[in-house]
Amino acid sequence: MKLDYNLFVKYSLTFVFTYMIVNQISSTKDPVVNFFGLAIVGIVEFFVFLIVDFFIENFWNK
Predict the structure, then answer these.
(1) Which of 7, 48, 50, 62 is the residue whose CA sits 20 to 30 A from 17?
(2) What's the predicted TM-score (pTM) here?
(3) Are 47 and 13 in contact (CB under 8 A)?
(4) Is residue 4 classed as helix, strand or coil in its secondary structure?
(5) Nearest to 21, CA basis, from 8, 33, 36, 38
(6) pLDDT per residue rounded down to tens, the chain (62 residues)
(7) Is 43 helix (H, G, I), strand (E, B) or coil?
């Protein structure tokens, strides 16, 4: 399997978005908020990856 450049771009964008969201959440010190925040981040990360995937597939490769 060769290194998929598109996949690399998708994962790095997803990681950057997720990191920004985690940074926002972890600025609140309440552990309960952090726990739910991380659960939400997991879901958000999945959707962000789908959106990034969609845009790259439709616009990047044209």
Answers:
(1) 62
(2) 0.43
(3) no
(4) coil
(5) 38
(6) 455 677 777 778 777 877 777 777 666 666 666 677 777 777 877 887 888 778 877 876 66
(7) helix
d(CA 31, CA 36): 9
SS3 10: helix
41 class by beta-carbon count within 10 Å (0-12 exposed, 13-18 middle, 19+ buried):
buried
Phi, psi torsion values for 61, nearest 5 degrees: -90, 5
Instruction: Of 22, 29, 26, give the one whose Cα is nearest residue 48.
Output: 22
pLDDT at 27: 66
Q: What are the structural domain ranges in the chain?
A: 5-60
* CA 16 to centroid of chain Cα atoms: 7
